[in-house]
Amino acid sequence: MKNIVAALSVIGLLVSASSSATAAGPADTPEIRAAVQKAATRAEHEAVAKLYEDAAAQTQAKVKEQQELLEQYENKSYLYGRQVQDLQLHASAQVREYEQVVEANIKEARLHRQMALNADENHAATNPQKLSIMDR
């Protein structure tokens, strides 16, 4: 009976972990999508960059969680029986996938920070009166 309960809990863990990271791209939430679509000003691009940085931090926490699981599987493999190799492989794959998501989110955040700088430059170039007032 204990083995059945343990097996079911492991299967549940695997299903929940595998469904949480399905693509190794940047975060794609309705909030981020809406912010990206309307981003035109520096402040809006900065806000989008912050959203991506927050998503990267959340995903980094998942990386740490999976690394701890992997360490548990390696250090106490005797607790998991025959499934230990599958669990180790799955946790390793999750770590790699989450790390790719973190990198993609950081890349998107940098891109939007650069767009924020460009938005300021474009605004200054299209509005020479403000530029000349600042120069004085």
General description of the model:
The structure is a single chain. The chain is mostly helical and 136 residues long. The chain is 83% helix and 0% strand. It contains 5 helices and no strands.
Distance, first to last CA: 82 Å
Strand content: under 5%
Order of helices and strands: HHHHH
Number of helices: 5
**How much helix is in the residues?**
over 70%
Largest sheet: none
Low confidence ranges: 17-22, 128-136
Global Rg: 22 Å
Number of extended strands: 0
Structural class: mainly alpha
Mean pLDDT: 81
> Can you tell me the overall shape?
rod-shaped
Give a topology summary.
Blueprint: H1 2-20, H2 30-38, H3 42-75, H4 84-126, H5 128-135
Helix pairs in contact: 2-3, 3-4
Give a brief outline of the structure:
The protein is an all-alpha fold. The protein has helices at residues 2-20, 30-38, 42-75, 84-126, 128-135. The termini are far apart.
Can you give keywords for this protein?
single chain; 136 residues; mainly alpha; disordered C terminus
